[in-house]
Write a structure and sequence with these properties.
This protein is mostly helical. It has eight helices and three strands; from the N terminus they run αααααβββααα.
Length: about 200
């Protein structure tokens, strides 16, 4: 059975950037719903049992057509949010350092250029979805609960949830304000560790 992951910080860890109320609802209600519905799908379809969420969502074409949407939505929701909690930190570092900082500067010309491009793509997601930084330092977006590994890409090293449930109670319709605040709590320590592992 899939379980809601415990967080490495309290719901009120991010002050005014992401409120305690939003964190609690996002984690204990929205993410829990994805977990519950994924478990119900697996229980009703024993051929799915014993597989990790990564295995399930990476091989959607191997599933019966009637199950693909369920696994993509509920499995993707669980997988994406599990990553997202790791990509937040009250001790974020505020910007990357070391090899990751050098890599972003090489690719984008400066850290600020990267921030501008990631912000642009985050704001450009139509409706609900995600923006991701991949190990090769490209930026990709996915709609709804799709994820890069659905499409044969590597697991991202950083990512941002731009569903309205992630910000509406704090920022109403102002996704741009939410994205600006997120940069203050983006977990660059986690991103750097993942980048280093991906480079080998």
């Amino acid at each position: 059975m899939f379980k809601l992951p415990e967080l490495d910080y309290s719901y009120d860890a991010f002050g005014t950037y992401i409120s305690k109320h939003v964190m609690e609802l996002h984690h204990s209600k929205h993410h829990q719903t994805y977990v519950d519905k994924l478990n119900a799908t697996v229980e009703a379809n024993p051929q799915l049992a014993g597989k990790s969420v990564e295995e399930l969502i990476s091989h959607l074409d191997a599933l019966p057509e009637a199950l693909r949407g369920l696994v993509k939505n509920f499995g993707g929701g669980h997988y994406n949010h599990t990553l997202f909690w790791k990509f937040l930190s009250p001790e974020s570092g505020h910007e990357p350092s070391g090899e990751l900082a050098d890599g972003l500067k090489d690719k984008y010309g400066s850290y600020q250029n990267f921030v501008d491009e990631f912000t642009k793509q985050s704001l450009g997601v139509f409706g609900s979805g995600w923006a991701w930084l991949q190990p090769e330092l490209s930026i990709v977006t996915t709609p709804n609960q799709e994820t890069p590994i659905n499409n044969g890409l590597a697991e991202p090293i950083l990512g941002l949830d731009v569903w309205e449930h992630a910000y509406y109670l704090d920022y109403t319709y102002n996704r741009a304000d939410y994205v600006k605040a997120w940069w203050e709590v983006a977990n660059w320590h986690e991103a750097a560790e993942r980048y280093g592992k991906a480079k080998g």
